[in-house]
Amino acid sequence: MRIKISNGFVIDPANNIEAKHDIYIAEGRIAAIGIEPEGFSSDKNKLKTIDASGCHVIPGIVDLRARLREPGLGNKGTIASETRAAAASGITTLCIPPDTTPVIDTTSVIELIHQRASEAGYAKIVTLAALTAELKGEQLSEMALLKKYGNCVGVSNALSPIKNNLVMRRAMEYAASCGLTIFLHAEDQGLAGNGCAHEGAISMRLGLPGIPETAETNAISRDLLLIEQTGVRAHFCHLSSARAVQMIARAQYDGLPVTADVTAHHLHLTEMDIGFFDSNCHVRPPLRTQRDREALIAALATGNINAICSDHEPHDADAKLAPFGETEPGISALETLLPLALRLSEELSLSDVIDRITSQPAKILGIDAGTLSAGEKADICIYNPQTNWILKTEDMLSAGHNSKFSGWEFKGKVTHTLLNGKIVYTNQSH
Amino acid sequence: MKQHDIQLDKDGKLRHFLTIEGLKKQMLLDILDTAGNFSSVGARQIKKVPLLRGKTIANLFFEASTRTRTTFELAAKRLSADVLNININTSATSKGESLLDMLRNLEAMQVDMFVVRHNSSGAAHFIAQHVAPHISVINAGDGSHAHPTQAMLDMFTIRRYKPDFSKLTVAIVGDIMHSRVARSQIHALNTLGVPEIRVIGPQTIIPKEAAHLGVHVYHDMQQGLQNVDVVIMLRLQRERMEGALLPSEHEYFHMFGLTEEKLKLAKADAIVMHPGPINRGVEIESSVADGPQSVILEQVTHGISIRMAVMSMALGRSSLTDGGQN
Predict the structure, then answer these.
(1) How is B287-313 classified by DSSP, letter by letter?
(2) Which of A149, A401, A414, B277 has the fewest beta carbons under 10 Å from its own?
(3) Nearest-CA residue of chain A relative to B18?
C-alpha cells in the first residue's frame, strides 16, 4: 500500500521545512516530500490518498517518558490501552522508564514489553534499563548486556535517586563506558521527606508537607559535579524550578553533555491549581510557583530545556480518592501532550513547539525518529489546528482518567496517526 | 472551580464546616452569637434543647482525641441528637478506598452529619466532596491543615475578655508549621479584623513562608510578647525532637516556654490561652497555666457552645426559638 498525504502544511523542524507539501509514502517509509516519485501513482488500486487540507503534518510525536503500567500494574493500564491512547494523540514512539514490576533490569522484561507493543501495534516503545539492580541503588545492573541484547536507549534509576555518592559515581562511569545516556530524577530524598507539594505559600496554607526547591537543586548540584568528573552523557528529567533551569543552563554553557526535559503539566499548572486539595495536582516533582513555570517556558524557548514530555502516569480511580497526601502522584497525560504543547504558541514558534516533542526527544534518545526525512520510517501525525474541543475525562482512551485538564478547551486535534506507513488512528469527524 | 464554596449551600448558609478560610466575617460573628445563645444551656438544670431531635451524628475519629471528641459528643447530646462514636485505628484502614467504603456504609445508616478528625491534611474536604448531598461534614481537625471549631472557641473566649477585635495584638507561640489550630486561629483573627498577629518560635517550626498567612514572624520571644493582649501557647509535640526541628524540651522551655517573667512583657491585662492538652514545664509554666491570667479551662467550656452552634447551623436549626420548646 502506498499513501499520499495531500495538501497538508508540513512542519518538520529537523529539516527546516514549514510549507505546504504533499508527502509520499511507500513500503512503510517516506519516499518523498513535495515531488512525486516516478511511477508512485501508477497503480491506483494500491494508492490511498489522505486529504490533509487545512491540517498540519508533523513527525510522529516522541514521548520521552510515559508509564504504561505493564508489566505489574494492570489495574492502572496496559501496553495495549496506553499505546492506543498514544496513537490517538499523535504519539508514535514512547520511552518507558524501568520502574515496572518486575523492574527492567533483565532482557526478558524488555522482550515482554516489545512483544506486547507489537501485538497491540499502535506505537513503538523504547526502554530505559535500570541503572542499578532492582533500582535499589546498590549494585550496577547488567547495562552492557541490556544495551546489546535489549536495545535499551539509556539507563535510569527512575524515581529512586541513588543516595550513595560512590555508587552514583561508579554507575556514571560504567554507563559512560557503555556509551549509555543516564536519565536522572533529581531529588534529595532527605530534603523531600514525606512532602507532597511545593514548599511555599500553598503548602503552608493547606498544612501539606512541603518539598523544597533545594530537594531538586541539591541533587542536581551533586549530579553535575559527578557528570563533570565521569564524562557521562546525562539527561535531567522533569525539571520543576527556576533555579534548576539556571544550573542546567550554566552546565550546558560550560560544555557538559547535559540535556533536560519538562512535563507539559509543569508548563501550564502551578501550586495554585491545588486549590483545596485537588489530588489531580499531586505530581512528582511538585508543581511550583508561577515564577518557576515562567522560567521553564523561557528555558524551553531558548533550548536549555530540550524537550517536553508527558510523564504519563495513568491511575485507577481509587489511587486519587483519598486525602491529598495519601493519593498517588501523577497525571494521565498522553492525550494532552500535543494540545498543551500547542498552547505555548505565545512563547514559542510553532516550529519550535513541534521540535520539542519530535526531533529533540528523538535526539536525546539517540533513535531514528522525529523527522520526515526521505527514507525514514513513516511515523506521522496529522492534526487540524482549527478544531476546538473540550477535554472530558470520560472520553479519554487511557485507562487512567486522572487529568487536571478536564474541562479545558483546546485548539488542535489529531485526525490521523501513521506508524511505519500504516494508519493506526483516524478521526475525520474533525 | 470555586471549591471553597463547598462549605456553603446555594443560599450562602453553612452546610459544612471545614476551614475558616473563605468564610465571611459576618458568618464568624453569627457562629459566635449563636454560641453565646447556647452557653446558658449548660447552666440549666436540664442541659438539653431539642433542636436536633431525630438527627444522627457520627463522630469519625481516625486520630486519638479526648477533649475534642468529648465536647463534640456533649454538644450533640445537648442538642438532642443521636450520637455514634466511631474510633478508627488508621493502621487498620488502607487509605482512601476503605475510607469511602466506610462513608457509604454510614450513609446507608441514614446519618445526617459526620464530625471528622483525620491525620491527613485535606481529609475533611475529601469527605465533604464525596458524601451524599444531605449530609453535613464538620472538621474536627485534619492533619496540619485546619481545626476550625477550636479556632472559633478561642475567638469566643477572646471576645469575652476583649470585645473589640480591631484593637488587639495577638501572639501565637510554638509549632506553627505543624499546627492546624494555629492555621485556623490565624484565618479567624484576620477575618475578624485583628490588626496585628504575631507568631513566635524558631525558624524550624515557623518557616519563612509563614508570613504568607498574614502574620509577623518573631524568633525572639522577648520581642514578640511586647504589649500583646492575648498570648496563645501551642502544644509542643514530642516527635518534633526526632525530626531535628528542636534540640530538646529543656532548651525549648528556656527559649519559648511561657513563664511569669516573660508574661510580664505582655500587657498587664493580657489573657493566656492554650488549646490543650498542656505540657507543663515544656511550653508553659504551671504557675502561668493555673494563674489569674489563664483562661485555659474556660476555653474547654466554650468548646461545647461553639460546637452546638456549628452543628445546629449546619443542619439548619440554630434558633432557640425555632422549636426549642416542643
Answers:
(1) HHHTSTTB-HHHHHHHHHHHHHHHHHH
(2) B277
(3) A276
